[in-house]
């Protein structure tokens, strides 16, 4: 027999946008439940353990350019959950701090999730209008009834949810969502027999060739044992998406051989289909329905950085409280 749960506000997606919105809603007295199909919080703030080593295979750092997000990162820093990793300049040439999470990037997500009600490993398969609210059906056979809903999953996944529930949208909104594109990213995590020769501070951004980013997780302070993270650029990831993952991983490691200066002990591959949006929408969220309330948010609306996702979540929460 299927079981139905109730919450005032349901948030689909426990990435940074969903958690940031849920936190604001919770602090304003709303009953909020966050669900996510993944086993961990934070979306692309992810890491993996390999033979006693740890490799971060999602977002490698955060930057803070807006006042409220700067204050949040400062709070994490003071409480020992983040620290400045390095400084680098943007197009203006001005250098600004890049922060890493302590002990890993996922610590940032866990801090936002403090005091929140969330359930992981729950995949939503459809959202339908039900009376004066929404019914979200899960792959497990369970259902969640809510007065309002915020969806922060990647837009193609969100569209599939809405289509399964036959949710009507304006032609303008449908066109906007259908045209949102993401860059894929094939990521290799490898343990090494010795420390790599990646220069300080342990992160190497590359603009030539198929490799976009190479990080030394030991030098970064993430892993006690030598381990690297290699992220392919969007073009390579797209062209090689359907190939055998082991072959692709080996090919990328061979490309990076001259940069490592150490032999590979073992490796794993993770492929992000929705690594980051190609372009950001003008507004930080999208209202699909005013009554009952349904709002979409995430990095496709707020921007491709972690900060953009958080800003989108905050803006969406404000809209839902209005």
Automatic annotation (TrEMBL):
GO molecular function: oxidoreductase activity
Every Amine oxidase domain range: 90-321
Signal peptide residue numbers: none
Transmembrane segments: none
UniProt-listed PANTHER family: FAD/NAD(P)-BINDING OXIDOREDUCTASE FAMILY PROTEIN, FAD_NAD(P)-BINDING OXIDOREDUCTASE FAMILY PROTEIN
Protein name, as recorded: Amine oxidase domain-containing protein
């Amino acid at each position: 027999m299927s079981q139905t749960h109730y919450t005032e506000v349901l948030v689909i997606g426990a990435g940074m946008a969903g958690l940031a919105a849920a936190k604001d809603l919770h602090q304003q007295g709303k009953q909020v439940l966050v669900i996510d199909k993944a086993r961990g919080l934070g979306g692309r703030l992810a890491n993996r353990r390999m033979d006693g080593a740890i490799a971060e295979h999602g977002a490698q750092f955060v930057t803070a350019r807006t006042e409220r997000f700067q204050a949040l990162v400062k709070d994490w820093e003071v409480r020992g959950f983040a620290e400045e990793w390095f400084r680098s300049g943007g197009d203006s040439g001005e250098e600004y701090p890049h922060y890493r999470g302590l002990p890993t990037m996922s610590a940032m997500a866990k801090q936002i999730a403090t005091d929140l009600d969330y359930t992981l490993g729950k995949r939503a398969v459809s959202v339908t209008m039900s009376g004066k609210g929404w019914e979200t059906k899960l792959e497990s056979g369970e259902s969640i009834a809510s007065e309002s809903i915020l969806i922060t999953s990647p837009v193609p996944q969100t569209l599939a949810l809405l289509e399964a529930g036959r949710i009507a949208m304006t032609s303008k909104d449908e066109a906007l969502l259908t045209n949102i594109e993401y860059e894929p990213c094939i990521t290799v995590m490898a343990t090494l027999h010795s420390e790599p020769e990646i220069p300080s501070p342990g992160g190497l951004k590359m603009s030539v060739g198929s490799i976009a980013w190479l990080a030394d997780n030991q030098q970064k302070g993430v892993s006690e044992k030598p381990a690297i993270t290699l992220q392919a650029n969007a073009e390579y990831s797209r062209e090689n998406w359907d190939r055998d993952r082991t072959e692709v991983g080996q090919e990328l490691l061979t490309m990076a051989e001259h940069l490592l200066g150490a032999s590979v002990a073992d490796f794993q591959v993770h492929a992000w289909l929705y690594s980051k949006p190609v372009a950001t929408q003008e507004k930080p969220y999208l209202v699909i329905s005013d009554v009952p309330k349904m709002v979409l948010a995430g990095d496709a609306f707020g921007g491709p950085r972690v900060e953009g996702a958080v800003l989108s979540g905050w803006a969406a929460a404000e809209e839902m409280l209005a």
